[in-house]
Design brief:
The chain is elongated. It has helices at residues 2-25, 36-62, 71-103, 106-134, 140-147, 159-185, 191-195, 199-226, 234-237, 247-253, 310-316, 332-341, 348-354, 359-366, 406-423, 461-464, 468-498, 531-534, 559-567, 632-638, 640-649; strands at 290-296, 320-326, 370-375, 396-397, 428-434, 505-511, 516-517, 523-524, 538-541, 548-555, 591-594, 598-602, 606-611, 619-623. The N and C termini lie far apart (62 Å). It is 47% helix and 11% strand. It folds into two domains: 18-133 and 156-235, no CATH class; 290-586, 3-Layer(aba) Sandwich (Alkaline Phosphatase, subunit A), CATH 3.40.720. By secondary structure, the protein is an alpha/beta fold.
Length: 655
């Protein structure tokens, strides 16, 4: 009896909904919809009408294209807009059509299905509003800000916001209602649509679904091969846009001569970026120190230990050590971006699409710096030749014989850098990227300070999923590879000291990201925002600054403001960076760590993970052990002010 009583209101509500739908359908004239073909015909009419509505709403995204954009770019972006409209509606069509045709129920086809397309278009409208405000599509952070309990206590939406949204929603609903009536009263009676009911007409209607997407994806792939970056803005402009890249495939299978990266140009006139916010101004009395940034592949914070990295541990006792240092991304692409640009790596794709280099490099070039970039792995996989090093590609040395192991290449780039020191014109900027601690964690035999039974070819990820001892053995290999790398850092830093360069050289040494071995439920990096993957080793040398341990939060984005502040830039760091100098007495209240489709905010007591894409709208608050906190609604509500600041940060450097 209790179950029936509990379910009665729900059942009654459903019956009322169906009754209301039938009342609406009674307005329609009788129509033969007895077979699957009739239902499929209406679904296709509805689909094409929804594509039209979606395209009209999407025009709002085109307004974000910067002034000065060429006519051809406008044509390509308009094609991409229509293509994306087809894609969004086709996903819904693909999901709903089989059930609709199989059911052959008029109330489903002519009422429920149009309502679902209305909801799709209203969601697109909401995304356009969010994009207009935050230059970011609807994601986990936006979701948390908008729908957190008691969100109005933090920000006031305003009654007219709700009224406007309701009015737009009703307008879209009325459009679909009138369309449904028009189909039954007029459209289906026209001779043209009568002829379209033939098999050829149906095939033509189906083929048109793929016409715009085919043209759009072909143009995008061509733009990727030829590096027409302005034609590739659809990925950031339209929600859930699906990019198609074909550079490697074209080079390998079609033998197409891909446009060399050295010929890439940067079009700042039509840029969507506002970076820097103001021209960089130097004080009258500036310094020109040498700058060395050393990125250590996968080296996390707890690896700064006397048994793992003995030299670097001793070196840190004489210089600066960041005790709570975090990467700007949980993978190399985003970690190096933060080091070189000084801004959150959530901007990575925008800078990649425009081939915009960092302010650090452009300003050092103006000051007459020479450059030397050495990497023991190719920098291409992280797209550095198109981002961090786009203006200094000729200075990059990252080509190696495949037979050389990572730890051997680490030794070679150390040799090359020491040779560079003997003939380098000063001042110079050098970026060194060591790869030895990358999986499978190779090292020379004399550095096996942690005895291990596993060779590099013995790693078995299938066994790793069920056998904890595999992870323990891998962790030992990892620590041995860092011990091997430590020997190269000793050679390098000793060479800098012996040549009397320490008094005029800024040095930053940090892991590009961390590495996990099952401590928080994952292995490797790039798949979570656990402390093992985000907290990295960090030691630095700033001339004139005595040894001390920094106990507040620091991040990779602090490197650039530290360098430019030391040189004598008059601008506040906020003009060109999200960081602050490591020499400042206080640090930020939180840091942002980016990933491919998600990011995290770390404030020292919690880790907030949120999605960056519409398909990943979840937000979760973890403690520093990477365990989800209880009562997520309460935790998210308490952090809404932080969310607002992070959202503002997403728009700092875009127009």
């Amino acid at each position: 009896m209790t179950d029936r009583a509990d379910n009665a209101p729900v059942t009654s509500l459903w019956h009322r909904f169906i009754a209301a739908a039938r009342d609406v359908l009674s307005l329609l004239p009788p129509s033969p919809m007895s077979n699957a073909g009739d239902h499929l015909e209406f679904v296709l009419y509805l689909f094409y009408f929804s594509v039209l509505v979606t395209s009209i709403i999407s025009i709002g995204f085109l307004h974000k294209i910067p002034q000065g954009t060429s006519f051809s770019t406008w044509v390509v972006m308009t094609t991409a807009m229509i293509s994306n409209a087809f894609f969004l509606n086709f996903v819904l069509l693909l999901v709903l059509t089989p059930a609709t045709v199989a059911a052959r129920v008029r109330v489903v086809t002519c009422f429920i299905l149009p309502v679902l397309f209305v909801l799709l278009n209203f969601a697109l409208y909401v995304d356009w509003v969010v994009f207009s405000l935050y230059k970011s599509h609807f994601n986990g952070m936006v979701f948390s800000v908008m729908f957190a309990p008691h969100a109005d206590e933090i920000y006031h939406v305003g009654t007219w916001t709700y009224i406007s949204g309701i009015m737009v929603g009703l307008l879209i609903l009325l459009l679909f209602a009138f369309f449904t009536l028009a189909v039954f009263r007029y459209v289906r009676r026209l001779d043209f649509f009568a002829r379209m009911r033939s098999r050829k007409g149906a095939l033509l209607a189906a083929a048109l679904i793929f016409l715009f997407p085919a043209v759009d994806k072909t143009v995008y792939a061509w733009a990727d091969i030829t590096d027409r970056t302005l034609y590739m803005r659809g990925k950031t402009l339209f929600p859930l846009y699906q990019a198609v890249t074909a550079k490697r495939w074209a080079r390998k299978w079609l033998k197409v001569q891909v446009r060399p990266e050295s010929s890439l140009t940067v079009d700042t006139a039509s840029s969507a970026l506002n970076y820097p916010k103001a021209p960089i101004i130097f004080q009258a009395d500036i310094r020109k120190p040498n700058v060395i940034i050393i990125a250590l592949e996968s080296v996390r914070g707890d690896m700064l230990a006397p048994d793992i990295s003995p030299f670097l541990y001793r070196w840190g006792t004489e210089h600066i050590v960041g005790e709570r240092h975090y990467t700007s991304g949980n993978r190399s692409t985003h970690g190096v971006f933060g080091m070189m640009y000084g801004i959150n790596s959530t901007y990575w794709y925008s800078f990649l699409s425009e081939r915009r280099g960092p302010v650090l490099v452009s300003e050092l070039r103006k000051l007459g710096y020479s450059f030397k970039i050495l990497s023991s792995s190719s920098t291409t996989f992280a797209e550095c030749p198109k981002t961090s090093f786009v203006e200094i590609r000729e200075a990059v040395d990252d080509r190696w014989h495949k037979a050389q192991e990572a730890h051997e290449r680490d030794r070679v780039i150390t040799d090359k850098f020491i040779a560079f020191l003997d003939s380098a014109p000063t001042p110079f900027f050098s970026f060194l990227w060591y790869d030895g601690p990358h999986q499978p964690y190779r090292y020379s035999p004399e550095h096996e300070v942690f005895p291990v039974r596993m060779g590099p070819d013995d790693i078995n990820y299938v066994r790793l999923a069920t056998d904890d001892s595999q992870g323990e053995e891998m962790f030992k290999r990892y620590k041995n590879s860092i011990h091997c790398l430590d020997a190269q850092l000793e050679r390098l830093l000793t060479a800098v000291k012996e040549r009397g360069l320490m008094d005029n050289t800024l040095i930053f040494i940090a892991g590009d990201h961390g590495e996990e071995f099952g401590e928080f439920g994952s292995f490797g990096h790039g798949n979570a925002f656990s402390p093992a993957q985000t907290n990295t080793l960090f030691v630095a040398h700033v001339p004139g600054v005595e040894h001390h341990n920094i106990r507040h939060l620091t991040s990779h984005v602090d490197f650039v403001p530290t360098i430019l502040d030391y040189i004598g830039v008059a601008n506040p760091p906020s003009d060109y960076s999200h960081g602050c100098p490591i020499t400042a007495p206080e640090g930020p209240s939180y840091v942002v760590v980016g990933g491919w489709d998600s990011a995290s905010v770390i404030d020292g007591s919690s880790i907030i993970v949120f999605g960056l894409e519409g398909f990943n709208a979840d937000t979760t608050v973890f403690d520093m052990r990477f365990i989800p906190l209880p009562n997520q609604s309460r935790e998210i509500r308490a952090r809404t002010p932080v969310f607002m600041k992070v959202l503002q940060g997403l728009t700092d450097f875009v127009k």
